[in-house]
Each structure stands twice: as C-alpha cells, then as structure tokens.
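Quick one, tokens below:
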C-alpha cells in the first residue's frame, strides 16, 4: 500500500505535497513524511499517525524547497514508528516507496559486507542505502538509481530525490502504479492521478518496469531494457475538489445515505431509456460465445462476486468459478476456451486482483472488470471495463461501492441471460423495471436506521456476533460480518445458515447475537428452522426480513428489522443496507475510528 507523491515545481513544495498526500491517505495512515531539496540540500519532516500530525509539525518546523517527495504509509516491514517513516534518507539521496522489496534481506546482507549499516526495519531503507552506495562508488544520480533499481525484486513505485539536485527526480514502477503529471515548467508524480488533481489533468501512466528521469523541462522514460519509450499523455477528468462529509459525522454515514442516488446513476448508465435492454460500454461482450465465467476479487468485492455467482448461474445458466484473488493467482487454475474472466474492485488497484487479471491475460477469451475508478490499472487492462458510477468512496468500509457493484453485476447477468435465451424480451423488461424501482425502495429502507441504531447500543457490548443467510443472503451475511469486524472490532463471522449445525452452533449461548437475513422467499422456511435452532440454545436473534417474514417468524426473536418488499433477485442490494447501518452504529457507539479503522487502508496495493 502506501501513497507516494513528488513535485519539481515553481512554488514551495511542502504545502502542495501535503495536499497531494491528503488525497492518498486512503492508501495508509500509519505515518507520513516529506523531503525537499532546499538551496541544494536535502531535508525532511516526518510524523507518526495520520497526515494531520505531519501538517502540525510543518507549522512549527517548516520545510522550504521547490522540489520534494512525500509518502503516506501503511506499515509492511517494521512498526509504524518514526524511524520507519518515509522518506528514507542518506547523506545524498531520499527515497519514497510503495510496494514490497522481496529481496531486501539479501541486499541488506550484501550492504552489510560493504560495511553499510541499516537503522530501520524497513525494506525501503535498503533502496536508499544501495543508491548511496553506488553514489559513493562514483556513480552519478541517474546511474545510481538505475543500478539500484536493477537489483530490486518485488513490487515498487519509487521516487528518488538527490542532495545538490534541485531539478532532478528519478521514478520507477513495477507492480505498483505511478502517474506522472504535466504542468507548466513543473512536473508531478503520484501513486494515483487523483493526488495530482489540483495541479493538472494531463497525466502519463508509467508501464511495468518503466523508469523515468524527470526535470522541470523534460521527462525521459525508458522501458525495462533501458530503451527510450514514449507513453501516452492523457487528459483525465478528476474532481479537484476535496470530497466532504456533506453534514454527516463520517464519510461512511454519507456514503450509506448516498446509495439511492448513486444507484440510480448506475442504472441510468446501463439501462436504455425504455427499459428494453442493457447497454454495455464499447463493443460489450457476446455471451453466446462464453461458456464459463471465472471471477476473482478481494474483501467486499469478493462478496459482490459471490452474489453474482447466484445470478449468473440461476438467471443465465452460466457456470461460475469464484475465488479470492490472493488464492486464484497462485492456484494456477486452468482457464479454458470460452471462459470470460471477471474482476471486481472498487479501487481498481488491489494488487492481488490485478495479478489475477494478469494471470488470465492471453488465456481467457475476454477480460471484464467492474471498478469505481475508470483510470485504474484493472480498468485499463481489461477488454471490457464497466464503471459503477458510485463517486469517490472515502470510508475504508466499502458501502455504496458494494451496492453499485451488485447493480452492475446484476445487469450483466441479465444481459447474459437474455443473450443466452434464458430470459425473454418481456422477462428482461420486467426485471429492468424492477431494477429501476430500486432507488425508491432503498430510499424507503433508509427508514430502518433509527431502529438499527437502537439495536446497536446492545450489540456494541458483545464480544462476538454471527450472521446467517441462505442463497443470495449468504454473501450478505459474510459482508455484514466483515463490515462489523472491520469498523467496530467485534469478532463476527458469516455462515450459510445450513452450515450452522456442522460446527458454529457450538458458539451459541445467551451472549451471542445472531443476525439472520431472511426475506420471505423459497428458502425462508429453511432459514427460519436454523433460526429456531439458535433460539433454542439461547442465542439473541436479530431477524432482517420483510413484512410477510416478520408476520410469520417474529415470535421469540429479540429484534425484527422489517425491510420493504423488492424483487427477490434484488434482495442482496436492499439487505446490504441494514447490515451497513448495524456496523456503522455499533462502531459509533464503541467510539472507534469509523472512516479510518486501525490497521486498514482503503486500497490494498501490496499482496
Ligand atoms: O478496491 P477493492 O474493491 O479491490 O478492495 C477490496 C477490499 O480490500 C475491500 O473491499 C475491503 O475488504 C473493504 N475494506 C471492505 O469494506
């Protein structure tokens, strides 16, 4: 993870670096730091914790200089303390890094033989020490950087700044994204173009293995073999305004509340105006040529895929394989002819998901992706990239991105069902009308918040919680458990209801809250039987159902949350809402850091 930025500018760099880092804080907030070259001399400021601590430090100890690099850290190697905070600096070079240098122990050992001592626990310090070592051997800065980069294994986006060189920055990318921003007699770099939004909309993305030598007036890019290359400059649309909480206490609360609106935008982007068809970007995909779908993603995006598996299998009759991207990429699964590979990622930069996509390149018939960032690596490397139109999601806990992902995936499953002759024109139209009714139903469902908030007061006292669901509700049970644990730190597990008696039922006692997701559909009676098994053992059930379900099964239940009626295929999108509220209000009651929970980052760019 981590975010890196850099500027060779005409104005003081420190405030611009901090502003750019603010936009990358979603990549980690364990510590932050900047280094500049001022009057030819390297200097740095660093602070542990969130970026605001660095800003405060800079008020008391300003840092001058018009060239600089910056870093926001998600700790991989070494504790999140000051000594491990980037930039890592030697006498003549400062380095910021996103990624993991896998051979840093070997490099350390080599440096130790040459009498070079490490002071930190990080892999990145090795990069700075190696560059210093080559400078000491007489290499010029470019040679030192190139010789250093040539020895690195693993993943990196790197920026080097040199003492005595106020018009030089050297950057490199392998496995971690890096964008170069073009200004007027200025140049910028960032892990994500969003960091550069206030400064420029003209961006060049480095490709795998590229290295670039930057001055204010020139950008020289070379490929992994050292050959000069030209990479396309694009003008991209980025919102330069900082996203605000719009009166909400937390971004997560704002993002939950936005769902009816953003989902209506998602629908408008894909459903043709008379609701007779679904339009996909570009040439779309011909599902008559596809006989298998393979999906791989991480976290909440994985649960979106798991939900979509039910839709693609039941509606389109398409066999689906699904895996965590981190498992998929090393499992070496056969990807046979006629397979479409589908990757879902809010950020579009998740390292494991990107690696899984790259594994499928040249093997899958078609590579599809569903992301919230159209400029992201996953979107750019797909044959068909489907944006979810959720708008910036700032809270680490994914909410609106999840329901927008589900909406796109449901529409894609309908498209497949129609193309494969599993649903008639009339059937498609009826489903699309149901989809178009979804924002209004979600709006109505917002009314459950107060009830959920009152339940959360008690839930906040629990040490553990279980979430149960069958069929389309199983992924939502998993998602509910993930949401609760990641922001309230309550241990929570999601189970397929039918699995309860195969082990987890041993956990049930009067202290165990059990959230049961059960709209009154064909599986309702089966789920209710499992719920009875919980209640018979003293478990406190929170039943989330519709009016018919509440009427038939509320007896003996601790709390019943009643949801509006909706087409059964769309229940995952609607029932995501109460589990989001449950996690949110429990976390608020416990007083945890809702938007930036401990140990987490919004975008996981290391494996
Ligand atoms: O950006 P992505 O959708 O690829 O991220 C995947 C997961 O890291 C993400 O969904 C994570 O699980 C969320 N924090 C869950 O709320």
């Amino acid at each position: 993870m981590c975010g890196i930025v850099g500027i060779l500018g005409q104005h003081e760099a420190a405030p611009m670096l901090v502003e750019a880092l603010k936009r990358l804080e979603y990549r980690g907030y364990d510590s932050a730091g900047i280094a500049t070259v001022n009057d030819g001399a390297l200097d740095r400021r660093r602070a542990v914790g969130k970026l605001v601590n660095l800003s405060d430090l800079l008020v008391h100890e300003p840092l001058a200089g018009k060239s600089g690099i910056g870093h926001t850290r998600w700790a991989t190697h070494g504790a999140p303390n000051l000594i491990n905070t980037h930039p890592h600096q030697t006498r003549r070079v400062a380095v910021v890094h996103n990624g993991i240098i896998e051979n840093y122990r070997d490099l350390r050992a080599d440096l130790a033989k040459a009498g070079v001592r490490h002071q930190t626990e990080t892999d990145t310090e090795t990069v700075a020490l190696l560059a210093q070592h080559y400078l000491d051997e007489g290499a010029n800065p470019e040679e030192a950087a190139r010789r250093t980069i040539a020895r690195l294994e693993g993943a990196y986006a790197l920026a080097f700044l040199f003492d005595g060189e106020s018009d030089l920055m050297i950057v490199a990318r392998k496995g971690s994204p890096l964008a170069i921003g073009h200004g007027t007699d200025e140049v910028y770099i960032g892990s994500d173009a969003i960091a550069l939004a206030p400064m420029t909309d003209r961006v060049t993305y480095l490709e795998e293995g590229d290295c670039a030598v930057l001055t204010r007036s020139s950008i020289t890019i070379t490929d992994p073999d050292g050959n000069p290359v030209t990479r396309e400059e694009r003008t991209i649309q980025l919102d330069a305004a900082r996203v605000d909480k719009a009166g909400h206490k937390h971004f997560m609360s704002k993002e939950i509340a936005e769902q009816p609106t953003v989902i209506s935008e998602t629908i408008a982007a894909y459903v043709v105006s008379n609701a007779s068809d679904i339009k996909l970007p570009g040439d779309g995909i011909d599902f008559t040529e596809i006989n298998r779908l393979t999906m791989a993603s991480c976290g909440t995006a994985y649960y979106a895929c798991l939900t979509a598996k039910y839709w693609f299998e039941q509606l389109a009759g398409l066999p689906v394989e699904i895996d965590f991207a981190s498992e998929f990429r090393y499992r070496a699964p056969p990807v046979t002819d006629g397979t479409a590979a589908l990757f879902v990622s809010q950020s579009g930069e998740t390292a494991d998901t990107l690696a899984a996509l790259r594994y499928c390149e040249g093997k899958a018939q078609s590579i599809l992706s569903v992301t919230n960032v159209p400029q992201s690596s996953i979107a750019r490397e797909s044959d068909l990239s489907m944006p979810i139109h959720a708008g910036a999601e700032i809270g680490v806990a994914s909410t609106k991105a999840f329901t927008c992902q589900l909406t796109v995936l449901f529409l894609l499953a309908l498209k497949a069902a129609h193309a494969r002759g599993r649903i008639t024109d009339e059937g498609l139209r009826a489903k699309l009308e149901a989809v178009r009714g979804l924002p209004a139903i979600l709006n109505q469902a917002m009314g459950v918040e107060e009830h959920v908030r009152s339940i959360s007061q008690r839930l906040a006292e629990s040490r553990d919680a279980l979430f149960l669901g069958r069929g389309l509700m199983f992924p939502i049970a998993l998602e509910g458990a993930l949401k609760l644990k990641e922001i309230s730190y309550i241990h929570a597990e999601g189970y397929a209801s039918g699995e309860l008696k195969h082990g987890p039922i041993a956990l049930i006692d009067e202290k165990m809250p059990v959230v049961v997701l059960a709209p009154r559909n064909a599986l309702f009676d089966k789920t209710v039987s499992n719920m009875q098994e919980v209640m018979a053992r003293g478990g406190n059930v929170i039943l989330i159902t519709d009016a018919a379900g509440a009427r038939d099964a509320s007896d003996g239940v601790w709390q019943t949350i009643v949801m509006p009626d909706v087409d059964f295929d769309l229940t995952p999108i609607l029932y995501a809402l109460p589990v989001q509220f449950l996690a949110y209000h429990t976390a608020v009651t416990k007083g945890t850091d809702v938007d930036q929970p401990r140990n987490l980052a919004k975008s996981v760019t290391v494996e």
